[in-house]
Structure formats: C-alpha cells, structure tokens
Amino acid sequence: MIKEILLVGLGGGVGSILRYLGSVYSCKIFHTGFPAGTFLVNILGCFIIGLLIGLAEHQHTLNDNHRLLFITGFCGGFTTFSAFSSESLKLFETGNLLLGVFYIAISVLTGISAVWLGIWLVK
What pTM does this model have? Predict the structure, then answer.
C-alpha cells in the first residue's frame, strides 16, 4: 500500500506543479477576463487522461502501477476535471445516460454552491 501511495503522490505532485505553471503562463499570454489558464489546463488534462485510458484499456501498455502514477496521480494532480469528464463519459458509454446527466448537473451545481457556502461562512 505504501508503494501505491507514493506513486499517486509523485504523479500528483508533478501534475500539480504543471497545472500551476500552465495556468500562470496561459494568463500571461491571454489577457482577458476569461479564465483561459484553467480552461486550457482542464481540456489538456481531459485529452491526456483519454490517451492514458486508451493506452491502458485498448493497447494494454499501462500496468496497475502506471495507472496509479499517470492516471490517478498525474491527471488527478493536474486537474480533477479530467477525472470528472472521464467518469461522465464512462456513464454514457455504459448506457447510463440519465445518471451521467445527473452526475454532471449535480457536480457542477453542488460544487458552485459549496464554493459559495464556504465564502459566505467566513464573511
């Protein structure tokens, strides 16, 4: 179990650092009110997790340790939006359309509400 935790931690640390750098440099390039850095990191993370899941499931080139390091760790640290998007797609692919739509709606609405509540509580 220690090995698995270290793999996730290592991947997550690298992913978090790259998320930070990607957001910082994107904001320097795009001078708009739109959160371009976060948007670009989220979309890139979704693309990366798609590639990695494809390699793991269809090419069988990633073992369990690779999945922990790259998918759970790196992608999880880079952006949890990638995991959210992957899980949503999996629900759709397995025929759970209503559950997928519910998951997306409830995640976004509850997430925004939780941020608002947290801010409101410390005012």
Answer: 0.76
Residue 32 DSSP code: S
Q: Which helix (H) or strand (E) holds 3?
A: helix 2-29
Contacts of 30 (CB under 8 A, 6+ apart): 36, 37
Give helix then strand counts, H and E, for the chain.
Answer: 6, 0
pLDDT of residue 14: 97
- For residues 75 and 83, is the Cβ–Cβ distance under 8 A? yes
Kindly provide the b/e burial profile for residues 35-62, where b requires at least 16 CB atoms within 10 angstroms of the residue's own CB: eebbebbbebbbebbeebbebbeeeeeb
